[in-house]
Design a protein that fits this description.
This is YolD-like protein. The protein is α+β, with helices and mostly antiparallel strands. Helices cover 32% and strands 28% of the residues. The protein contains four helices and five strands, in the order αααβββββα.
Length: 128
């Protein structure tokens, strides 16, 4: 048995040879596929609690501040930046510079305040 502990990916280290011990250096398409999947895997472990989400959303809404929302969409993360214009029971509406985004609260992973957001937005509006 070959020691694969030096390999950088867990899937390559755990791979069990299917009995083709002809060479020690061959690399199967299954190796490549599993390495590619592991490289592009998205980790959603940094989720906020519901109370934290609602607190941050209400602070952004009350202060009319610009926020950045990292949202889970299927198997990937999406980032939206804008002002919270509406709050419903399970979703919010975020107005970005060019359109409105309907975001489910349960899919929000992180919320960040955009520093100087309200002032910057007003300056951009005045410059137009």
């Amino acid at each position: 048995m070959v020691d694969g502990s030096y390999l950088p990916f867990q899937s390559a280290r755990d791979h069990q040879d299917r009995g083709m011990m002809k060479w020690m250096g061959f690399f199967l398409s299954e190796h490549t596929t599993s390495l590619d999947e592991e490289k592009h895997k998205t980790i959603f472990s940094d989720e906020l609690s519901l109370l934290d989400k609602l607190t941050l959303i209400s602070q952004l809404y009350a202060g009319q501040l610009i926020g950045e929302f990292i949202v889970k969409e299927g198997n990937r993360k999406a980032t939206y930046q804008g002002q919270v214009t509406e709050i419903a029971k399970d979703e919010i509406v975020v107005k970005s510079t060019d359109k409105f985004h309907l975001i489910e609260v349960k899919n929000i992973l992180a919320i960040h305040l955009v520093e100087g957001g309200a002032e910057d937005e007003q300056e951009r509006t005045l410059q137009r």
